[in-house]
Amino acid sequence: MSRAYTDSSSVAKAYDNWTNDALLERLWGDHIHLGHYGEPPQRRDFRQAKIDFVDALVRWSGLDQLAPGSRLLDVGCGIGGSSRILAARYGFDVLGISISPAQIARAQALTPAELAPRCRFAVMDALNLELPDGSFDAVWSVEACPHMADKQRYADELLRMLRPGGRLAVADWNRRDPAAGAMGRRERWVMRQLLDNWAHPEFASIEGLSRNLQASSQGAAIQIETGDWSKATLPSWIDSILEGVRRPAAVLGLGPRGVILGLREIPTILLMHWAFASGLMRFGVFRGQKPA
């Protein structure tokens, strides 16, 4: 079955399928993004690295300076792993949104009753957020931009959500900027696999997404700062495969179908590792604060 991007419904369908398959959650836990292994990277548990990633981005972006009870929007929340960490560890009032109904249903099911009042979820398109301007003290978005066909619209919506003085924290899979060198034949082939296998229309570069955020009509006065966490997150790709060895019951518990599902993802994961290790891809982080 093809997972090439056609429109936003193809993204929703891909994530509905991944969620209903249950393999990623069984293998990687309820936080399905990459982990942070430190700089220089050090060996650690894959699931702990994911928690460490949230803590690292909170500190780097200045979200730790916000008071408990601050309102935070998690754009592309998956099954809610990072949203629950942000609510439980930092006391934020979190709204997580995803275009996938299956992800939102699962996020709600995984959220304990005591956390539910300040960790809520809704099905919503990140390019058309059905929320008033300036609704949040912070906007958080991790590994969501590759699924957005209109990068400028994505940036505009993120900045539109921030109140005066609000903080932005974005982390993204980014391609090498075209100004840094055109792709060779092998790189073009790899890039096509990375796009078509996981429902991506295109990757932005760090420089490109920074320009999108800076050019936003809502964010023209915001100074966007960027960083490159490629080295700190790189071990995630191999670890995501090794989890199948460390936790064989997660795969075998789904029967032969689980093995087939796991094997299907390995080639793309290995290509992602090669792309990030070689510099074709970079893991960018972005922060800014809206003027008060």
Describe it for me?
The protein has 292 residues and is of the alpha/beta class. It has a single domain (8-289), classed as 3-Layer(aba) Sandwich (Rossmann fold), CATH 3.40.50. It has twelve helices and seven strands. The chain has helices spanning 8-21, 23-28, 46-61, 81-90, 101-110, 151-161, 185-197, 206-215, 230-233, 235-246, 248-252, 256-278, and strands spanning 71-75, 93-98, 119-123, 136-142, 162-175, 225-228, 281-289. It has a seven-stranded mixed sheet with strand order 3-2-1-4-5-7-6. Helix 5 links the parallel strand 2 (93-98) and strand 3 (119-123). The longest helix is centred in the last third of the chain and has 23 residues, at 256-278.
Largest sheet: 7 strands, mixed
Major sheet: order of its strands? Answer: 3-2-1-4-5-7-6
CATH topology: Rossmann fold
pLDDT averaged over residues = 95
Gap between N and C termini, in Å?
49 Å
Strand content: 15-25%
Written as H for each helix and E for each strand, in order along the chain, the element string is: HHHEHEHEEHEHHEHHHHE
Radius of gyration: 18 Å
- Sheet/helix structural class: alpha/beta
What is the name of the CATH architecture?
Answer: 3-Layer(aba) Sandwich
Helix percent band: 40-55%
CATH superfamily: Vaccinia Virus protein VP39
Shape: globular
Number of helices: 12
Spans where pLDDT lies below 50 across 5 or more residues = none
According to DSSP, the number of beta strands is: 7
Number of domains: 1
Q: What is the name of the CATH class?
A: Alpha Beta
